[in-house]
Amino acid sequence: MNNQKRKKIFKYTFIGLVLVLVLIQFIRIDKTNPRLIESEDIIAIHEPSKEIENMLRVACYDCHSNETTYPWYSNVAPVSWWLQHHIEEGREELNFSVWGTYSQKKANHKLHESAEEIEEMHMPLDSYLWTHGDADLSSEQRKSLADWFESIMTKTRS
Fold first, then answer.
1. Tens of pLDDT along 67-95?
2. Nearest 5 degrees, angle CA 122-CA 68-CA 114?
3. Which residues contact 74 (CB under 8 A, 6 or more apart)?
4. Domain boundary assignment for the chain
5. Residues 137, 114 contacting (CB under 8 angstroms)
6. Is 110 helix (H, G, I), strand (E, B) or coil?
């Protein structure tokens, strides 16, 4: 294949890719947060200290509540699709906004899992920390949050 033909193939491939990238921008994600019933939220139910509440909101709530704050890059496909998938998956696994709907057994299980995920540094996800540096918890913060999760495990909810 001669050099001229390669350039032509490269040119049309590049134009095709740019066109696809432009066209997929019209496929938008739904950024509407589900309805929030404040009395069902873990913070309203268990009334943590301001420090713990701040850690929950900064490190957990974007993916594990109905209070997601979408960053600027959530407007760029295909990153937006990946982000939306993570949020849906996170809410399905654990949603602090619907905490009051969990049975005591389910809540205790989720609390134990949450403490483990925080202690073992599986949460917040590294990919989340790349753009949310304030969610990068120190060892002391991780211990405080994990201890708080464990401390409310046996409490009965009102």
1. 999 999 889 999 999 999 999 999 999 99
2. 30
3. 29, 31, 80, 83, 84
4. 31-151
5. no
6. helix
